[in-house]
Write a structure and sequence with these properties.
322 residues; 8-stranded parallel β-barrel; two-stranded antiparallel sheet; NADP_OxRdtase_dom; NADP; NADP-dependent oxidoreductase domain-containing protein; AKR1C
């Protein structure tokens, strides 16, 4: 693979800088995930981002295996990420959760396994266990213990790399300062786009050789259960649109390119084939330093995915500045 299209993680493995996000509302995820993931691989995506909670790992795994079977790719060409859900953060549940994902995927290993959120909730089959008042039922888990279990999964060869998601810098620090730390997180996957550019968290991660992976890089999918629909639409921003016009590109491509040029690994999530094909064109142009500066200037700390369900959890990550 072209070296400009991947970056080295702190454990020596490489991650493609552009990833395909597979999340969709459950009714779409199950029926369409296989087809769109196969299509994404066909047009050139090699980094596939999924998670247990998306409930479509079976379909995404089928897509990957069918593209291996027909000779489009080899297993080692694909970088596959899965995520450990909140109900499995107790040390003893980590490996079984990863093994369950591998069983659903019908793969021998994942390339990256990350803690989806730093919020432990009551274990069980229910993905979002809630009390009578509709709040998530917290479980008290030391995430340093969760991390030790992830390190063991890496040593066992079930995952090549391990990382975190939705951690603030204090939560990252806790793991980095853990006595006897064997492996640092290779990444922190967080919401990141020109309206929430995460400059401070990005600088913190860079200083520890941790890659920032951006989700919601195009703003939000406007899903009412996750997102405040009164917020402005990122891709309608006049600055982004002007830069897009100048380069004869779309605002979405400018938003993706912005991340790649600042050293962020970026996920492009779409179930629309025309847009999936378009998103891979992020490598066909370059933004000028002036463009980058102009996009830096539209940051307004708008978080689309606040995960308010977890706001009363003692570990809720988004109350910190970064």
């Amino acid at each position: 693979m072209d070296s400009k299209r991947q970056v080295k993680l702190n454990d020596g493995h490489f991650i493609p800088v552009l990833g395909f996000g597979t999340y969709a509302p459950p009714e779409i995820a199950k029926s369409e995930a296989q087809e769109v993931t196969q299509f994404a691989i066909e047009v050139g995506f090699r980094h596939i981002d999924c998670a247990h909670v998306y409930q479509n790992e079976e379909q995404v795994g089928q897509a990957i295996r069918s593209k291996i079977a027909d000779g489009t790719v080899k297993r080692e060409d694909i970088f596959y990420t899965s995520k450990l859900w909140l109900t499995s953060l107790r040390q003893e549940f980590v490996r079984p959760a990863l093994e369950k994902s591998l069983e659903n995927l019908q793969l021998d290993y994942v390339d990256l396994y990350i803690i989806h959120f730093p919020l432990a909730v009551e274990p069980g089959e229910e993905l979002f266990p809630k009390d009578e008042s509709g709040k998530l039922i917290a479980d008290s888990v030391d995430l340093c213990h969760t991390w030790e279990a992830l390190e063991k999964c890496k040593d066992a060869g079930l995952t090549k790399s391990i990382g975190v998601s939705n951690f603030n810098h204090k939560q990252l620090e806790k793991i980095l300062n853990k006595p006897g730390l064997k492996y640092k997180p290779v990444c922190n996957q967080v919401e990141c786009h020109p309206y929430l550019n995460q400059r401070k968290l990005l600088d913190f991660c860079k200083s520890h050789d941790i890659i920032l992976v951006a989700y919601a890089a195009l703003g939000s999918q406007r899903l009412k259960e996750w997102v405040n629909l009164d917020l402005p639409v990122l891709l309608e921003d006049p600055v982004l649109c002007a830069i897009a016009n100048k380069h004869k590109q779309t605002p979405a491509l400018v938003a993706l390119r912005y991340q790649i040029q600042r050293g962020v690994v970026v996920l492009a999530k779409s179930y629309n084939k025309k847009r999936i094909k378009e998103n891979i064109q992020v490598f066909d142009f370059e933004l000028t330093p002036e463009d980058m500066k102009a996009i830096d200037g539209i940051n307004r700390n708008i978080r689309y995915y606040k995960f308010l369900l977890g706001v009363s959890h003692p570990e809720y990550p988004f109350l910190e500045e970064y």
